[in-house]
Amino acid sequence: MYYPSVSGGNVTSVSGSRLFKYEVKGLRQNAETDNMDAPIRKSGSVFITVPYSRMNQEMQRITRMGGEIVSITPVNDVTHGQNAPAAAAQQDNGKSMTQATPKAKKKDIPVNLYKPKNPLVAKVISNEPLVREGGSGIVQHIKIDLSGSDYRYLEGQSAGIIPAGTDENGKPHKLRLYSIASTQHGDDMNDQTVSLCVRELEYKDPETGETVYGTCSSYLCHIEPGADVKVTGPVGKEMLLPDDEEAKVIMLATGTGIAPFRAYLWRMFKDAERETNPDYQFRGKAWLIFGVPYSANILYKEELEELQAKYPENFELTYAVSREQQNAEGGKMYIQNRVAENAARIWEMIQDSKTHTYMCGLKGMEDGIDAAMAAEAEKNGVNWNDFRKQMKKEHRWHVETY
Question: Which one of 86, 349, 354, 366 has the lowest number of neighbouring Cβ atoms within 10 Å?
Answer without folding.
Answer: 86
